[in-house]
Structure formats: C-alpha cells, structure tokens
Amino acid sequence: MRSTAYVTTRPRYGVLDVVGLLFRELLLMVVVFLLIFALGAAAVFTLKKTYTAQGAVFAGVGQEYVYQPRVGTAERGQAPQGDEVANSEAAILSSGQVRQRVIDALGPQVILGRAPKGAPEKSKAAASKVLGSSLQVATAPGSAVIRVSYKADNPQQAARILNSVIDQYLAYRREVFQDKTPAIASQRLAFEEDLNAADRAYEQFLTSNDIGDFAAAKATLAATYQTTFADRMATQSQLNQTSQRLSTLVALQASTPAEVALQQDLNISAQDQVLQLRTERQQLLSRYQPDAQPVKDIEARIAQLQAYVASGTAVGPKEVRTGPNPVWTELETTRINTQADRDALAARLAALDRQLSDIRSRQA
Hints:
about 65% helix
C-alpha cells in the first residue's frame, strides 16, 4: 500500500500583485486614514494655545561675591567665574520664596487665569504649582546671563507674571545679601563711618597734593624713581672712574720733570786740533823727510790728541738749552680736564640724590 504526502507552498506575489491587493482594500485604507486624520485634527484643535514670555538677567560679579576695596590700593579678592555667579543667582531666581512673593504680589487668580475656588491656602498652593511648572530658568556654561521664560494661555498674562518674577527676584536678593543681625548691623554702620572718613581723608590728600589719579601718579613716581636711581648708579660709576683716573694722572705728573733739554751743543775742539795737526804734517812732508825731527814732533802731538779723544773725556756738552716738557704739559692738560669732569659728575650726583629724596618723600 503506497502513502502520499502533500506539501503546502506559499504563493509568490509580484509588484503588480501587491498593488492589486492594495486596491482591493482601498476602501478600508481610506476609512483608517480618515479616522486617524480626524483624531489628530481633533487633538490639535482642542489643545489650548500657550504663549511664552522670555527674559534675560545678567549676573555680574559685585561686592556680594568678591571684596573690592573702596579706599587705598589693597588687592581685590578672588573673583568667581561668571557661570558660577549665574548658577548662584539662578538658584535664588527659581527659589520657592520668589514664587511665594509673586503669588502675594499678583494674587492666585492672575496665575491660575480664573477665580480661585476653595480655601486661600489651596489656591496659593495650586498657583505655586502652576508657577513652578511654567517658569523655566536656564544658564549656559561660561555665560553670566540667565535665561528666564514663562508659559501661559494669554500673552499679557505671561509677560506680567515674568516681569513680576524678575522684580521679586531683585527685591529678594537684596534681602538675601543683607544681614539683619543687630550686632552685625551696628558693626557695619561703624565700618561705613570709618570708610566715609577714610574717603574724605583720601579726597583731601589728593587735593592737597595736586593728584588727579592716585594709581597713575604712584606708577609714574615709581617709574621716575627707577629711572633716576639707574642714572645715579651710572653717574656714581663714572665719578669713581674719573676720580681714579685723576689720581693716576697726578702720580704720573709727579714723576715727570716739568723741564727737559731741548737742544745741546757738543765740545769737539780736540777732534778739530787733530785734523789741523794732520794738515800741518802734510805741509811739513812737502819740505821734510818723514824721519825729520819736525815731522816726528807733530806726529807725537797727533798721537797724544788721539789718545785723549779715545779716552772719551774730550767730547761733552758745550751749550745746553732747556724748555717745558711736552709729556708733562699733556699730563697737566689731561689732569685739568679730568678734574673738571670729576667736579661736574660730583655736582650731577648731588642733584640726583636731591631728586631721589624728593621722589621718596612724595611717594611717602
């Protein structure tokens, strides 16, 4: 006996088959589309319109966050970053105390947009809840600007509530940064009196010393003092150098003669006599023999004179003329100029010392 098995296969549809099937259910598709469109349109047309009022508050660094001296040149305190101040002010702006002040100032009916029902406490609680959900406070990293916005069904209502929030924030922050403790208040008043007295003394000081800008005058005096002090150091160095040069010139001049021999005539009469005797010997040789007695006599005299000249005592100064020494004269001229330079530098140094003393007294 043979058994037979049957396998069911899914039909394969082409693009035209799919389009045909869709057109078969066209009525159902239209009905579903109209139903969804009607629900969406009903939701859109039934929703209430909301209007957003926007504002911005700049949170700068003031006396509340950093110490800024009113008198003198004391250093300022470390200032926080702009976004840190903005975050601190944003916390005050979105605090519950500010919302409560807005409710007290405007009334719950303005915030709720209708007449309150029930007990006043419930109305205020409902207004506080609406105000908290509709008010948006945002800050950006690195920015000192706080963005504030409020959503309401009426644009005038949104703007009015937002302005009231900002006004109440400004009033509340003044109270936050103001200590009402009696002891601290009296101490603050004493400090303010001292500061006012210091201000008056400061203004009087500027007026009596003809100073318009104290910081600029102080910086100018400091720069002038540095320049004058550097000039004094250079002048002192030049004065020491000139004084040492003058001492050296005086020592050299003391060891240099003031007069020297300018010209001298030598005594050469012995050489002249030798030449004269030689001339006479030549004349005698023309009349006598070389071994004649007159010739021998004159030769003996020539030998004696030559021996005298050879001894070195025959030649000496005959006439000497003296005059001023040029080296001593140059040293004297240089000494006079150097002494004049030294006196000028000493006078300049004294003037610089007086200027430094005046600058120091004015700085004090």
